[in-house]
Amino acid sequence: MNNLLANPWDSETPIEEQPSLPSSSLNERGMIFSQSYSDDLPNLGSITLNTDLAQDPWKSNENLVAGDEIFSNSVTLPPFPPSKHEDNVPQTQKEISYQIELKKLDQITVELEEKHVSLFGHLNYIVKSKFHGSSVSRRYSDVLWLQNHLLKKYPFRIITSIPPKKAVGVDAAFIEQRRKGLSRFMNFIANHPVISKDPQIHAFFTCEATFQSYRNSNVVENEEEFNVNQVQEDELASVPELFESQLLDLKTSLKPQIDYIFELIGIMERYAHRSMESALDYRKLAVLLSTTKNGNNCFVAGCTYCGNINEQCDAYSDGLEGVCNAHTDQAYTMSMQIVEDLKSYRDLLTGFQIMLTRREMAITAMASQNIARRITGNKNRLVEVTAKGGGQKEIDRITNLINQDEREQEYQVARTRFIEWCVYNEYRFLHDQKSSLVTLLTLFLETQIKFSSQYLSVI
């Protein structure tokens, strides 16, 4: 299974360090998104822009995260905090057993610990859970352990990937990418309708001691979900007869869908980049036109013409400052909210794709055992031995083999049905998240309308 842990988005354009922002919000359908900024956003300092857009953001770049920000070291723009906005409040949902209950929705934020570099160079993250009201310190190795635990226990559930561990060349850009990737992973597992109830997830978000000490002092149960989860017959029977064929169609369409999301991410990042560069140019124009800053005074006695020009230039300068603010606000929304939301949906699609691979491997492994053929062969052998008056010891041995294989066959049939039931419910969960794309497009259009209004109000 280790080969299935490979990050499905392991190609990325490097970025420079960006300010850590609170991350995670949920739309009304329960899709996990990353919140770009909050109402009490502090002064963010300077923002850097990458002027090299020729590099393909989806080509391999030493296991960096595909589609992440294009911000890099080039030109520096003075900070303009984005305007405040109200978070979407989740709406009441129809109570279906597999849907996320409103009261269970959680919001996870992941920030670098201020004194995060230890003697051995380890990074610590402050993980905060809104639902639990907790704040704990965790390391990358803790998240990796948790992911492996979930893969062992819930192999037929969607488990999204986490950013790779990089042994050399770790810089601020990689650290920021990894923080965002970990945030998306934690928000997903904290809000998944099944795996969020796992005791280890609860301990991960609430245990104040180090997670390593918790694991050392507690027995961790990671037996496969099928062996511990008793599912009623009516639930297993809820899987449609045509689901297998539907799943084949979905599998065929997954790659184009994922490619589509990757393309959307690239477009949105380039759009944000252009907005930030426009903001920079407007800021420079504002400074150049400002006679207050440049001290452009007239020394000709009785001249009123220069004063009028200065007043107009100062007015234009103020207007351009507003345009700069509008462009910057738009870029923040695009790069830190819409892009992160798209990446959450991308992670969901790729997680489902990898889960289907695990399903196929499991079913193939069971089919390769040829239990039915062994049972038939041993039954024929038993008839022959009995007919020839074979010894009771041999008859008992063959009978025991038949009984063992029949029990194994029953186990495999039950496990196969359970796998299909899990995959069907994960498919329903994935289907429910499709509305997130509409939410994102709506947010994008609202951003454009807001930007146009701000633009027109200051020119």
Automatic annotation (TrEMBL):
Domain PX: 103-212
Region annotation (Disordered) ranges: 1-27
Pfam families given in the database record: PX, Snx8_BAR_dom
Any one biological process term the GO annotation gives: protein targeting to vacuole
Membrane topology, from the record: Peripheral membrane protein
Places the protein is found: Cytoplasm; Membrane
GO MF annotation terms: phosphatidylinositol-3-phosphate binding
Chief location of this protein within or outside the cell: cytoplasm
Sorted UniProt keywords: Cytoplasm, Membrane, Protein transport, Transport
InterPro entries: PX_dom, PX_dom_sf, SNX8/Mvp1, Snx8_BAR_dom
GO cellular component labels: cytosol; endosome; membrane
Family membership noted in the UniProt record: Belongs to the sorting nexin family.
Name by which UniProt lists this protein: Sorting nexin MVP1
